[in-house]
Write a structure and sequence with these properties.
Layout: H1 2-48, H2 51-54, H3 58-61, E1 62-64, E2 71-77, H4 80-85, E3 98-99, E4 109-110, H5 115-122, E5 134-137, E6 148-151, H6 152-161, E7 165-166, E8 181-184, E9 188-195, E10 198-205, H7 215-223, H8 234-241, E11 245-247, E12 253-256, H9 276-285, H10 290-298, H11 306-316, H12 327-344, E13 348-353, H13 362-369, E14 377-385, E15 397-399, E16 402-404, H14 406-418, H15 430-439, H16 441-444, H17 474-479, H18 481-502, H19 509-526, H20 535-543, H21 547-557, H22 562-567, E17 569-573, E18 576-578, H23 580-584, H24 588-593, E19 600-602, E20 609-612, H25 613-631, E21 648-651
Parallel strand pairs: 10-21, 12-14, 13-16
Antiparallel strand pairs: 1-2, 2-5, 3-4, 6-21, 7-8, 8-9, 9-10, 11-12, 13-14, 15-16, 17-18, 17-20, 18-19
Length: 652
């Protein structure tokens, strides 16, 4: 029995040794796999936390523990509401990447592997701006990249001021945003898609565009140390422009809403309760045009019977050609009637005050999500009517097809004077863009091949262009820096107009910054005046149909005596802009050749004051540069996704 027990013990000992060996081996394998996984994970983290991935954000994102066995990760979190409260002054640039090595400044840059780093660079938000963002923890690294977490509404708001557009023709503000989705803008593309971690987004920049504006202008404004104006309202103005608003002073906003579908155009019958005797007294007590008398007697054109419309046409002289006309006259009248019929479809827009409109529209919600207040909003709804149905006694002013009363005209004046190049593309909604174009109707209607017939060469800081003749003495401009800025501004307008008419150009961000610098220098020339701000001159150019055209003619006629022309005085008195003394400084023969007899212009909402000729030319130059900036705009529509896109978005 003893040997048998020894054998059993031996077998038990052997089996125990084998089991111990197996357990030890498995333990070694598990430890090996764990170490390999830790090393692999550590290598992946080092790659994700490298300078090539994070650029200057490397020091902010990483926070390793003892022995670097565990990493604490955090990325910046940007809130629009916080940016508004912090009075952020955006300096939007094209993302150009970072040097290849963080220790050396290599001319050739590379784009960071984390696309959010490049996106933040375009906003000029750097790690040093720690008062503009918060650091939020990130759970893990994904695909070798540490993602930045955005709130959906904040990302939509930021993209709207950057001019991003959706590929959808009509983005919905009611149905959830479909994935995948792609937005495009002047800086690049933003692609959204879904994965196991939720909604992710990737930013890809465009190629770096070359400047379309001549280098001589870039050199000029850089050599003079011209800076981009940085007004406190620029950021809020961009936010409002992207949701159908126009910024006013003191944090107010002008909201020109669309047509209210719950109200009918019949509510526009402003004199429906007037008795017949009162209506006759009105007709006898004031001078009305034929159209106004017909409207008061017979109502709106669409409410008139067909026989009445025919009788009114006969009384007006008729539109059909008579039998005695020649064949050519018949043809001309036929085409004229077609043109008039086509124009009749272009209905005019009348605005009615509508307090509380923002609070019941989607744009009020969008303003709230951006941290904007609607308490000081001036709200109006629009109605589309025929031109002959407009009561000119109630709406005596118009800018293009926009018919307004005096109160709204004052708000429009304030809004357009605040709208100017800020160093980036204008990015309004389609409605705001159309309204702005109507406000610039008098400017748009006179754009010709060349805006200013002035000398085309001038010696500036060692630059000589002797191949072309100059009608303006360069020594005068060297002695007068303000006049030099004025001359370059006019030359810039000519080049922008030539490019607009003869080339396909996508202006670069640097070109947009140049426009802002040019307007800034011209505002220095515009300066202050006696009793009135230079803004009244800009407003006069916008409002008057022919003033800006005549000013351009006078500039061409005065090339022989530029100093006297720029020094002559223009006055505003009792709402009349008087250019008589200014025009008298021009040679009578040249003045007569241009056939401009009118020297006084009625302009509403201007204060009395005196200006120099240089200030007048500066005003019209500012208007044209601003118009070209508006013309190069990127219409944005991504604000509609504010409530429909995912609440949380990870940007790789």
């Amino acid at each position: 029995m003893a040997p048998t027990l020894d054998v059993v013990v031996a077998w038990m000992s052997a089996l125990s040794s084998v089991a111990t060996a197996i357990v030890g081996f498995l333990t070694l394998v598990i430890v090996y796999i764990g170490v390999i996984e830790i090393l692999s994970r550590n290598r992946m983290y080092r790659l994700g936390l490298s300078y090539e991935s994070l650029g200057p954000w490397k020091v902010k994102v990483t926070n390793s523990s003892l022995l670097r066995l565990q990493w604490g990760l955090s990325t910046p979190s940007v809130s629009l509401e916080h940016l508004v409260k912090s009075d952020w002054k955006p300096k939007i640039v094209f993302p150009i990447g970072f040097p290849r090595n963080e220790c050396t400044q290599v001319p050739r840059n590379i784009m960071a592997k984390a696309s959010w780093v490049n996106f933040m660079q375009s906003l000029s938000l750097s790690p040093a701006d720690d008062n503009l963002y918060d650091m939020r923890g990130v759970s893990e690294i994904m695909n070798g990249v540490i993602p930045m977490r955005w709130t959906g509404k904040d990302l939509a708001g930021i993209c709207s001021i950057l001019g991003f557009q959706s590929y959808e023709e009509h983005p919905s503000d009611k149905s959830p945003m479909t994935l995948p989705m792609q937005w495009s803008g002047p800086l690049g593309w933003l692609q959204f898609r879904s994965n196991e971690n939720g909604c992710i987004a990737e930013f890809r920049s465009r190629m770096n565009l070359h400047e379309q504006i001549s280098q001589r202008f870039h050199r000029y404004y850089n050599n003079y140390g011209c800076k981009i104006p940085s007004e406190h309202y620029y950021f809020q103005s961009r936010l409002w422009n992207s949701i159908n608003g126009l910024c006013l002073q003191k944090d107010a906003v002008l909201y020109l809403g669309g047509r209210d579908q719950s109200k009918t155009d019949e509510e526009f019958d402003d004199d429906e309760n007037v008795s017949e005797n009162q209506r006759l007294n009105q007709l006898m007590s004031a001078d009305f045009t034929v159209e106004e008398i017909q409207r008061k007697l017979f109502g709106k054109s669409k409410n008139r019977t067909a026989p009445l419309r025919r009788e009114l046409e006969k009384a007006r002289g008729g539109r059909r050609p008579t039998a005695g006309m020649s064949h050519r006259d018949d043809t001309d009248s036929f085409f004229s009637s077609i043109l008039r019929d086509a124009m009749s479809y272009t209905r005019k827009e009348v605005f009615l005050s509508c307090p509380g409109l923002l609070s019941v529209t989607i744009h009020g919600e969008l303003a709230h999500s951006r941290g904007l207040s609607i308490e000081r909003a001036k709200e109006y709804r629009r109605i589309y009517v025929e031109a002959e149905d407009i009561d000119n006694s109630l709406y005596p002013y118009n800018l293009g097809n926009l018919y307004v009363d005096e109160n709204l005209l004052g708000l429009v004046k304030e809004a357009v004077l605040l709208l100017q190049p800020d160093g980036f593309y204008f990015s309004p909604t389609a409605h705001v863009y159309q309204d702005i174009c109507e406000m610039y109707h008098n400017i748009e209607g006179q754009l010709e091949r060349k805006l200013f017939s002035i000398g085309s060469a001038v010696s500036l800081q060692g630059e000589n262009s002797s191949s072309q003749s100059s009608a303006v003495p360069s020594t005068l401009f060297q002695d007068q820096p303000g006049y030099q800025h004025l001359y370059m501004g006019m030359e810039l307008c000519n080049e922008l107009q030539l490019t607009r008419k003869t080339a396909y150009a996508t202006f670069s961000v640097e070109d947009m910054r140049l426009l802002a610098k040019a307007v800034g220098t011209l505002k220095d020339v515009l300066g202050s005046s006696q009793g009135s701000g230079g803004g009244d001159l800009i407003w006069a150019m916008l409002y008057s149909p022919i003033l800006s055209l005549n000013v351009r003619k006078w500039v061409e006629a005065a090339s022989d005596d530029v100093y006297g022309f720029f020094s002559a005085v223009v006055t505003i008195k009792d709402g009349t802009l008087d250019c008589t003394g200014w025009v008298d400084s021009i040679d009578p023969v040249k003045r007569h050749n241009f056939g401009s007899e009118t020297t006084t212009y009625k302009v509403p909402l201007v204060q009395d004051g005196a200006f120099s000729g240089a200030q007048v030319v500066a005003a019209i130059t500012i208007i044209f540069i601003t118009y070209f900036w508006i013309d190069a705009s990127w219409i944005t529509d991504v604000a509609a996704y504010d409530m429909t896109m995912p609440q949380s978005v990870l940007m790789y």
